[in-house]
UniProtKB/TrEMBL annotation:
Highest taxon of the lineage: Eukaryota
The protein's name in its UniProt record: ITIH3 inhibitor
InterPro entries: ITIH, VWF_A, vWFA_dom_sf
Limits of the VWFA domain: 65-141
Organism listed in the record: Atlantisia rogersi (Inaccessible Island rail)
């Protein structure tokens, strides 16, 4: 168990003491041990970086409104869109619950929306969205 509290003074936040502007001057470093039991939430470790997802067990899940904003410009060609983006989107779609709502906005040379409003995450809508995700191609600027 850990508690981290960071309360820099105004002087610690100033890049130049003679200026009235404030900006945190320095690095904020937290050393964190990721060797935890499975009950401590989900931990993903990739290439020396980690993300720790955790929430109280007794907390009920709240309905979500999710808008996926997807870069489908030419720089996303190949593995980035064909595997990484599609796989991530399909995984998140499977995790949506019926009380959630979602939609997609894509962008490259132009911005496009998938639907004109958020859709409820019914099995039919999620299946339709999965079909849309499979059609995503990288093109444009």
């Amino acid at each position: 168990q850990a508690h981290i509290s960071f309360k820099p003074t105004i002087d610690q936040q100033k890049v130049n003491p003679e200026l009235d502007e404030t900006l945190l001057n320095g690095d904020f470093v937290v050393r964190y041990d990721v060797k935890r039991d499975a009950t401590a939430g989900d931990i993903q470790i990739v290439n020396g970086y980690f993300v720790h997802y955790f929430a109280p067990h007794e907390m009920p899940a709240l309905p979500k409104n999710v808008i996926f904003v997807i870069d489908r410009s030419g720089s996303m060609a190949g593995r980035k869109i064909e595997q990484q983006t599609r796989d991530a989107l399909l995984k998140v779609l499977r995790d949506l619950r019926p009380e959630d709502h979602f939609s997609f906005i894509t962008f490259s040379s132009r911005v496009a929306k998938w639907k004109s409003s958020l859709l409820q995450a019914t099995p039919e809508n999620v299946a339709s969205a999965a079909g849309f995700v499979q059609t995503l191609l990288a093109s444009g600027g």
